[in-house]
Design a protein that fits this description.
Radius of gyration of chain A: 23 Å
Oligomer: heterodimer
Helix content of chain B: over 70%
CATH superfamily of one domain in chain B: MetI-like
Structural class of chain A: mainly alpha
CATH class of one domain in chain B: Mainly Alpha
Largest interface: A-B, 85 and 93 residues
Largest sheet of chain A: none
Strand content of chain B: under 5%
CATH architecture of one domain in chain B: Orthogonal Bundle
CATH class of the largest domain in chain A: Mainly Alpha
Largest sheet of chain B: none
Shape of chain B: globular
Distance between the termini of chain B: 40 Å
Structural class of chain B: mainly alpha
Strand content of chain A: under 5%
Number of domains of chain A: 2
């Protein structure tokens, strides 16, 4: 029995080490000098700590034409992520509320189409969308990328809210109706105030998804608003000359920092979001 | 109750208008548009000169496309199998009443919070020849696709762990008591009873993983840019390149429609199985 326990812990411990290895390598590489990286081992702890790579990654490294670090990408990502989180969540909440309580004719068919759309490869829709947004004059602009995130975030968010409101007693809705509440009043005064848990879950999921997005930002954001993931990839894969691995890793950590912080601070909610999205996904 | 009834009935429809536009215009409309373009000779701009299935013929004569399909099939099988095996093992081991469960779960799931771009870049650096590991798969044409498997399994295995663990917690404790009374070893109970019980969870997980397989793009772009040469080319990247770099919209659209086929092939039986279960 005891041998088995040791075996269990040995397995879990070595697995944990494997999973932590990339994080460890990123961190130690980002605080070494290039000389030390060339001479030492990938896994060695730094002999002399330096935070110069972090400064360079944030404010000096070249991301394509400009050499101002990934901070421009960071602020672009912030500018994209805030509206791309708030607007789709509000729409998802309204959708879920209407689907659960008002059940207009044909809405469930639409919802099925919407869910199926979540599985369609982006490549099927990307070029027509480019043309549509270009025709509307918002291709390559902030409103354009927010609209695209709204379109592709809608299935999961609608599903989250629909399932959440399905668990709300229908009597509550009936009572509000009898009291003369209309569509919007019941939504704003009854449903939304009791939706805090699902709002938090939805915000975590959508914010993580938008922040980690690469392909939509690459295509739709336009040169002025390239998100951090796209700029990070430019820093590492399209710049010529000597590769500054320490700066690269610092830039990678900076880019991963927001979703990682969100995850470590909200672990339980993060898992709930995955489960809620997957259960009926 | 003297309120007018008409607005109350119209408002829900109006409120669902964005959803309707998304589903009908953005999803169905765009997919049909791409289908139409795939039958034309469009290059830089969409043209209406129909060429039948010529783009599909050209597509499957294209070595790069055929290679990308091979890569995706190999990648998909290995990625899904490895995620399922590792995720289930982790979940089962965590389920043995271990101390530090919360910490372990956090460690196994954190990569899932990272973008595929960041994932690809970290592994590109770790696997750079002459650095940490004594092999140079990432610059080896025959092995490079396995490095993409390793990186993305690291990213996604925690998802399987989290969902299977949730499923294990839902298993009736009486089942375990009965098995213990009968003297059945724990591993047999897992293999013969518990995992079959979790079949719906595993099916959902597999479907989720399959969709990330079809969408595989960011990780390859960040990690190998499809190289060395075209050795780690994948369909999504082939399509993007032909849309935006090589101005061959017709060919790219045909490729996109080919990618849609396996998705529908997975989705339709799954939806059918679900609707049967719900109706029963």
């Amino acid at each position: 029995m005891k041998v088995a326990r040791v075996g269990i812990y040995a397995f879990l411990f070595s697995a944990a080490l494997c999973f932590l290895l990339p994080l460890y390598v990123m961190l130690v590489t980002s605080v070494k000098s290039m000389d030390e990286i060339r001479q030492g081992s990938l896994f060695a702890l730094p002999l002399a700590l330096t935070f110069e790579p972090w400064r360079q990654a944030w404010s000096a490294v070249c991301t394509g034409a400009a050499c101002e670090g990934v901070r421009a990408g960071f602020w672009n990502s912030v500018a994209i992520a805030i509206p791309s989180t708030i607007i789709p969540i509000l729409l998802g909440a309204v959708n879920g509320y209407a689907l659960s309580f008002w059940k207009p004719r044909g809405a469930n068919v639409l919802f099925a189409v919407l869910l199926a759309g979540a599985f369609i490869p982006l490549q099927v829709m990307i070029y027509p969308l480019v043309r549509l947004l270009a025709a509307g004059g918002i291709f390559g602009s902030l409103p354009g990328i927010v609209l695209v995130h709204t379109i592709f975030g809608m299935p999961l968010l609608t599903l989250l809210f629909r399932n959440y409101y399905a668990g709300v007693p229908h009597e509550l809705f009936q009572a509000a109706r009898i009291d003369g509440g209309g569509f919007w009043r019941i939504f704003l005064q009854v449903m939304l105030p009791m939706s805090t848990p699902i709002l938090v879950v939805a915000a975590i999921m959508q914010l993580t998804g938008v922040w980690n997005d690469y392909i939509l930002g690459l295509v739709f954001a336009g040169r002025e608003h390239l998100p951090m993931t796209v700029q990070l990839n430019n820093v590492i894969n399209t710049t010529t000359g000597t590769r500054l691995y320490n700066v690269n890793m610092a830039a990678t950590i900076l880019t991963a920092l927001v979703p990682l912080a969100l995850y470590f601070l909200s672990g339980r909610w993060f898992v709930r979001g995955i489960a809620a999205g997957a259960v009926k996904g | 109750m003297a309120r007018p009834r008409r607005p109350a009935r119209l408002t829900p429809f109006a409120a669902l208008l964005p959803m309707a536009l998304t589903a009908i215009v953005a999803y169905i409309g765009c997919a049909l548009w791409t289908l139409r373009v795939s039958f034309t000779s469009s290059r830089t701009f969409a043209s209406s000169q129909y060429v039948g299935l010529a783009q599909y013929e050209r597509l499957f004569d294209n070595e790069r496309w055929v290679l990308s399909l091979h890569n995706l099939a190999l990648y998909g099988v290995l990625f899904i199998a490895a995620c399922l095996v590792i995720g289930c093992l982790l979940a089962i081991f965590i389920d043995q009443n271990v101390t530090g469960e919360g910490v372990l779960r956090t460690i196994f799931l954190y990569p899932y919070a990272m973008s595929f771009v960041a994932t690809g870049l970290v592994w590109q650096w770790m696997l750079t020849p002459g650095q940490g590991f004594p092999f140079d798969w990432i610059v080896d044409q025959d092995m490079v696709i396995y490095t993409v498997v390793i990186a993305t399994v690291w990213q996604a295995a925690g998802l399987v762990m989290a969902m299977v663990l949730a499923g294990l917690r839902g298993v009736d404790p009486d089942l375990w008591k009965a098995a213990r009374l009968d003297g059945i070893p724990a591993w047999r109970v897992y293999v013969s009873i518990v995992l079959p019980l979790l079949a719906p969870t595993l099916a959902t997980v597999t479907l989720l993983l399959s969709t990330t397989v079809v969408k595989l793009f960011d990780a390859v772009v960040a990690m190998t840019q499809g190289g060395p040469g075209t050795a780690s080319e994948v369909p999504a990247k082939f399509i993007m390149d032909h849309l935006f770099l090589r101005s061959n919209i017709g060919l790219a659209s045909a490729g996109a429609m080919v990618m849609l086929a396996p998705v529908l092939a997975m989705l339709v039986p799954y939806a059918y199985a679900r609707s049967r279960r719900v109706n029963r």
